Amino acid sequence: MYQYTDFDQQFVQLRADQFRDQLNRWQAGKLSEDDFRPLRLQNGWYVQRYAPMLRVAVPYGEIASRQLRVLARIAREYDAPEAAVFQEAMDGQSKLGTTFLPTHCAHFTTRTNVQFNWIPLSKSADVMDLLASVGMHGIQTSGNCIRNTTTDALAGVAVDEFVDPRPYAEIIRQWTTLHPEFAFLPRKFKIAIIGTAEDRAASAWHDVGLHLLKNSAGEVGFKVFVGGGMGRTPVVSTAIRQFLPWNQVMNYIEAIVRVYNEHGRRDNKYKARIKILVKSEGQKYIDDVEEEFRQIVEIDGGPHTIPQAELDRVKACFVAPALPDVPDVAPAALVQQLQALRAEHPAFGRWLARNVHAHQNEQLRAVTLSFKRVGQAPGDATADQLDALAALVDRYSAGEARVTHDQNVLLPWVHGSQLFALWQEAKALGLASANVQLLTDMIACPGGDFCALANARSLPIAEVITQRYQDLDELDDIGDIDLHISGCINSCGHHHSGHIGILGVDKDGKEWYQITLGGSDGSALSGPAVAGKVIGPSFSAAEVPDVIEVVLTTYRDLRQPREHFVDTVRRVGLEPFKLAANAVRTQAQASVAA
Ligand code: HEM
Ligand code: SF4
Question: Is the CB of 457 under 6 A from ligand 1?
Answer without folding.
Answer: no
